[in-house]
TrEMBL record:
UniProt-listed Pfam families: Acetyltransf_1
Location of the N-acetyltransferase domain: 55-139
Keyword annotations of the record: Transferase
A molecular-function term among this protein's GO annotations: acyltransferase activity, transferring groups other than amino-acyl groups
Record-given protein name: GNAT family N-acetyltransferase
Length: 145
């Protein structure tokens, strides 16, 4: 989580540690009511998309960036960069790879600045967006721009 000097939350990331990116059945069941409220009759498509993502997910040990976001009023002030650097610095210290998926083509170049490279591209079923699969090998150095 990134906070401003006055303690306001400006951004956050959601990372899963190596070997822990899959949700347990118990966690999936506990999330189901909220997912049903959010997705309604589209919930079967969500389940199929999740299965598709599981099939393409890399098997090598890695930190998985599931989400990153900053508040609209502080975008382009460096909070996202600092959030990425914090975890990627730990990846470097631990000599562990990192992985993310993005459906925004504008993010590909941004993520490449941090050592990620496009490992593949797929299209989500049922008219979903194209998704770039990005891998950052172990042993990189995230402390640069």
């Amino acid at each position: 989580m990134a906070c401003s000097d006055c303690g306001i939350v400006c951004g956050a990331t959601l990372w899963s540690p190596p070997g822990r990116w899959r949700h347990t059945v118990r966690a999936q069941v506990s999330m189901l009511p909220g997912l049903i409220r959010a997705f309604g009759p589209r919930i079967p498509r969500l389940g199929l998309a999740d299965l598709q993502k599981q099939r393409i997910h890399p098997g090598e040990p890695h930190w998985y960036l599931q989400a990153i976001g900053t508040s609209p009023g502080v975008r382009e002030l460096g909070y996202g960069r600092e959030l990425l650097r914090a975890r990627l610095g730990s990846c470097d210290d631990e000599n562990v790879a990192a992985y993310l998926e993005t459906s925004n083509p504008g993010n590909v170049g941004y993520d490449e600045r941090f050592g990620f490279a496009v490992r593949g591209r797929t299209r989500m079923r049922f008219g979903g967006p194209p998704v770039w699969l990005m891998w950052r090998p172990a042993g990189r150095d995230a402390r640069w721009d």
